[in-house]
Each structure stands twice: as structure tokens, then as C-alpha cells.
Design goal:
- 42% of the residues lie in helices and 17% in strands.
- With 309 residues, the chain is α/β, with parallel strands linked by helices.
- The chain has two domains: 248 residues, Phosphoenolpyruvate-binding domains (TIM Barrel, Alpha-Beta Barrel), CATH 3.20.20; 45 residues, no CATH class.
- The protein has an eight-stranded parallel barrel with strand order 1-2-3-4-5-6-9-10, surrounded by six helices.
- The model has no long low-confidence stretch (mean pLDDT 92).
- InterPro entries: Aldolase/citrate-lyase_domain (IPR005000), Citrate_lyase_beta/mcl1/mcl2 (IPR011206), Pyrv/PenolPyrv_kinase-like_dom (IPR015813), Pyrv_kinase-like_dom_sf (IPR040442).
């Protein structure tokens, strides 16, 4: 796996919309992916590919991770897209939509290697898990190829794939709730449609040393929904979340950045354990809680998200 990337906020932008691409390059997002797939009408596909190639070579992307979401694995254009873009040094990753079958990922890897040209290393692959079949095969997909460095959850298409009755991307259906018994007045508890796919994807990513990226909150004008879904993903252990509008960047990033209190505790815990080890102890009490090396591994990971503000 390559050096771990900081991808707390992953901004999606249609490749053929030049102004939006330019704004994305100048944004505060950690990562950007230019889309050649769902966000581009069929008549604009060729123009989108030309625009993506131009943007990669002309815009100042700073320290961002820059990716391109290719068209579907069975599309007639995917190999040409890889050939056109795969040798451009500023491109970090291809996002592979509707990843389902290991053989497809292996084939795409060969195309990427063939297109690498003068690059120091070939373009990475980030797999978009957005179907029932993809989730069933997610562990095998995570281990499919050395170019795979991240898994993304495609929340909209996944909901459609399983037949969920929801029209809002990233939100659970209103009817998906537990209803209690009559004696208690039938209390209702909303349930999370994405709890299982999020956890399964996360475990697969961790098992094979990959980053895990949550799908977007479609209600981009809803600050509460944007923030709460990002907080959930960060709390679970995800590395970042897709955003579909620049207005979501700050709230999403804030969900992944540790607070001053968390960082202060992390520093106290590390210092206390180091002192304990000097005294021949493998654990210590900090703020009334036991701290050992497992805790230190958790707080060091938390500290890694601070990155650039």
C-alpha cells in the first residue's frame, strides 16, 4: 500500500463542468474526484474525458488527492479512459464504479499498468462498492490487487440495489424503524439502513490495509444531516466521506478532526504510558481509566486525522 492519504473530505465534481472543476481544485477539500460516470450525460462523455485530462495538467491541485471516477466496468469507453489518463502524473487514483468481481479488477489493473508510461508508480484504484453483489464480495475485492488502496460505499446505488424505499441519498427510509409493543404505547425507534454495509466495508478495508470512505449525504443544504452523517462515519473509524457540494466540506472535515480536548487527552495518555514503561509497567491510569498499548494505538490514529486544517 502507498503512503496513507488524508482524505477526510472527498469532493465529487462532474468532469465536464469546467467552472465547478476549477472551484474544486481551489477548495479546502482534502481530495477531489472528477466524475466521468453518473454526473455526465451520455452526449458529454467525450468532452468530459478531454476536460479531465486538461484539468489534471493545468490546474493547481495543491496537496489534494486527485481522482477520476471512470465509467462502468462494462462500458465501451473505460479502457480508452484509462489509456488517456493513466500516464498523467498528477492523477492519484481511478475510482472504479460498481466494483463486483475480482476478475474485472484484475483486468483493469493490467490496463492501468500498461497506461502508466513515465510515471514513477501506476495510478491507484479505489473501489466503489454500491451493489448487493459488490458488498457480498467486498473482502475478495479488497484483496484483489496491489493497486487497490481504498473502498468507497456508494450509498445511493446500494440502496437501490437492495430495493430500499428511499429517494434521498444517504438517508434511511422513513419507514425503517422498530415499533415496540402495545403495552408500551408502540414506541418507535428509527433504524440505520447503512449500519451493516458500512461496518462490513470498514472491516474489509482494515483487514487489507485500505482506506474506507463513506458515501455522500445527498441533502447538501441540510447542515444537521451533513454533520451528523459525517460524525457517524468518523466515530465508526472511517477515513473520510464523499461530499457533493463545497458547502459540506467544513462540517464534514470538522467531524473527522479531533477536538482540542481529544488531542490533550491523547498527549496525556501517551506521556503517562511512556513514564509507566520507564518504571517497568505496561499499563497506567489516566483520568480514571486504564491505558495500555491498545489505547495508544487508538489515540495515535485519532491524532493522524489532524493533518492540515
Amino acid at each position: 500500500m502507498t503512503t496513507q492519504r488524508l482524505t477526510r473530505t472527498y469532493l465529487a465534481v462532474p468532469a465536464h463542468r469546467a467552472r465547478l472543476v476549477q472551484n474544486a481544485a481551489a477548495s479546502s477539500a482534502d481530495a477531489v474526484f472528477m466524475d466521468l460516470e453518473d454526473a455526465v450525460p451520455p452526449a458529454e462523455k467525450a468532452a468530459a474525458l478531454d476536460a479531465a485530462a486538461a484539468a489534471l495538467t493545468t490546474h493547481d491541485w495543491g496537496t489534494k488527492t486527485v481522482a477520476v471516477r471512470l465509467n462502468a466496468i462494462d462500458s465501451p469507453s473505460i479502457q480508452a479512459e484509462i489509456k488517456r489518463l493513466g500516464g498523467i502524473r498528477r492523477l492519484d487514483a481511478f475510482i472504479i464504479p460498481k466494483a463486483e468481481v475480482v476478475a474485472d479488477i484484475t483486468k483493469i489493473s493490467r490496463w492501468i499498468m500498461d497506461a502508466a508510461g513515465p510515471r514513477d508508480a501506476p495510478v491507484e484504484m479505489e473501489l466503489l462498492i454500491e451493489t448487493a453483489r459488490g458488498l457480498v464480495n467486498v473482502e475478495a475485492l479488497a484483496a484483489a490487487d496491489g493497486l487497490v488502496t481504498a473502498l468507497h460505499l456508494g450509498v445511493g446505488d446500494f440502496a437501490a440495489s437492495i430495493g430500499a424505499r428511499s429517494a434521498e441519498i444517504g438517508a434511511s427510509p422513513a419507514g425503517y424503524r422498530h415499533v415496540g409493543n402495545a403495552a408500551e404505547g408502540h414506541p418507535q425507534v428509527p433504524l440505520d439502513l447503512f449500519a451493516y454495509p458500512m461496518m462490513r466495508l470498514l472491516v474489509a478495508a482494515r483487514a487489507f490495509g485500505l482506506r474506507a470512505i463513506d458515501g455522500p449525504c445527498g441533502a447538501f443544504r441540510d447542515a444537521v444531516a451533513t454533520s451528523s452523517t459525517a460524525v457517524k462515519a468518523a466515530a465508526m473509524g472511517y477515513d473520510g466521506k464523499q461530499v457533493i457540494h463545497p458547502s459540506q466540506i467544513e462540517a464534514t472535515r470538522d467531524a473527522f478532526v479531533p477536538s482540542a480536548e481529544e488531542l490533550a487527552y491523547a498527549e496525556r495518555a501517551i506521556a503517562a504510558l511512556e513514564e509507566a514503561e520507564r518504571n517497568g509497567q505496561g499499563a497506567v491510569t489516566v483520568d480514571g481509566k486504564m491505558v495500555d498499548h491498545a489505547n495508544i494505538r487508538m489515540v495515535r490514529r485519532l491524532m493522524s486525522f489532524k493533518g492540515r486544517d
